[in-house]
């Protein structure tokens, strides 16, 4: 496992509760509907978490690579749009949904920096609207920025081992506290921008991981962050780093209005 990784996304169901999932087969990425997609395959998973209650994260989506490899997560924000991480974008594939919905386009934030992972956010538009139900629901976007000490919920199908690789069949959840900006910058000197925040435990043991990338950080039922990057997974002194969604509300609204 790469010690410095990016966590990446598609739509999937959580025990029948999720959204379509992106699957890549023969050079194509397709979204699997919630009836067909119960898992996400990526190198990122929750470490030290617990199985999410069935249907508790109805906005959760994921990307897959092949039938078993889920490489990223995401969040449905309305019937047409998904938020994920910009580093989850793959230029060499066509985006589509395998069953009910075709993916129309994927739009990275214009100033996304692949070298330092700044502005790690992406919008994905569906060609057909998602059908809401008790199991498929959008999540509101938080206009409030992260506050140190606040406990948030991270979810995903990423790696669940600190050493080695094991991906769960059931969506994993993890409660993590938001760390102060000073603690975040001390953990990653010179690497944290105003568009990033840290959440987790300095002592290690609990974290998002490879395969969780692009997935949601939720506070009070609203999308506050996007799983972005970290050094290792659940390592002491290296908390998870997340994209600060509140900084992109205007851009999100503009993209949706113009597309």
Question: Please, how many helices?
Answer: 2
CATH class of the largest domain: Mainly Beta
Helix-strand pattern: EEEEEEEEEEEEHEEEEH
Mean pLDDT over the residues = 78
The CATH H-level homologous superfamily of the largest domain:
Trypsin-like serine proteases
* Tally of separate domains: 2
The largest pleated sheet is described as: 8 strands, antiparallel
How much helix, percentage-wise, in residues? under 10%
Low-confidence stretches: 1-45, 92-100
Mind sketching the topology for me?
Blueprint: E1 4-6, E2 21-25, E3 28-32, E4 50-51, E5 60-65, E6 69-76, E7 81-84, E8 94-97, E9 103-108, E10 122-126, E11 151-156, E12 172-177, H1 181-187, E13 196-199, E14 216-219, E15 222-231, E16 240-244, H2 249-258
Parallel strand pairs: 2-5, 3-8
Antiparallel strand pairs: 1-15, 2-3, 4-12, 5-6, 6-7, 7-10, 9-10, 11-12, 11-14, 13-16, 14-15, 15-16
Keywords: Disulfide bond, Hydrolase, Protease, Serine protease
Family: Belongs to the peptidase S1 family. Snake venom subfamily.
Domain Peptidase S1: 46-257
List keywords for this structure.
TRYPSIN_HIS; 32% strand; Peptidase S1 domain-containing protein; 259 residues; Thrombin, subunit H; disulfide bond; disordered N terminus
Can you put this structure into words, describing what you see?
Residues 46-257 form the Peptidase S1 domain. InterPro entries: Peptidase_S1_PA, Peptidase_S1_PA_chymotrypsin, Peptidase_S1A, Serine_Proteases_S1, Trypsin_dom, TRYPSIN_HIS, TRYPSIN_SER. The radius of gyration is 16 Å and the shape is globular. The protein contains two helices and 16 strands. It has two domains: 4-44 and 58-138 and 248-258, Trypsin-like serine proteases (Thrombin, subunit H); 151-246, Trypsin-like serine proteases (Thrombin, subunit H, Beta Barrel). The chain is mostly beta strands and 259 residues long. It starts with a strand and ends with a helix.
């Amino acid at each position: 496992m790469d010690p410095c990784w990016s966590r990446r996304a598609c739509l999937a169901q959580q025990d029948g509760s999720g959204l379509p999932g992106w699957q890549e087969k023969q050079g194509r990425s397709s979204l699997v509907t919630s009836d067909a997609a119960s898992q996400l395959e990526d190198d990122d998973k929750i470490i030290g978490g617990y199985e999410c209650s069935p249907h508790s994260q109805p906005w959760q989506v994921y990307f897959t690579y092949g039938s078993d490899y889920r490489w990223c997560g995401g969040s449905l924000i309305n019937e047409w749009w998904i938020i994920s991480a910009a580093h989850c974008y793959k230029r060499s594939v066509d985006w589509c949904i395998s069953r009910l919905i075709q993916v129309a386009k994927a739009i990275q934030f214009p100033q996304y920096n692949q070298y330092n992972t700044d502005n790690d956010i992406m919008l994905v538009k569906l060609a057909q609207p998602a059908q809401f139900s008790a199991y498929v629901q959008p999540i509101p976007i938080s206009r409030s920025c992260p506050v140190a000490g606040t406990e948030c919920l991270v979810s995903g199908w990423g790696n669940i081992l600190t050493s080695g690789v094991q991906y769960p069949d059931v969506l994993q959840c993890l409660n993590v506290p938001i760390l102060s900006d000073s603690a975040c910058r001390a953990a990653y000197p010179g690497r944290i921008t105003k568009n990033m925040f840290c959440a987790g435990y300095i002592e290690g043991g609990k974290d998002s991981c490879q395969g969780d990338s692009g997935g949601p950080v939720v506070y009070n039922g609203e999308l506050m962050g996007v799983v972005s990057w970290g050094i290792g997974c659940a390592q002491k002194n290296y908390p998870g780093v997340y994209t600060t969604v509140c900084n992109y509300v205007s851009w999100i609204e503009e993209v949706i209005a113009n597309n």
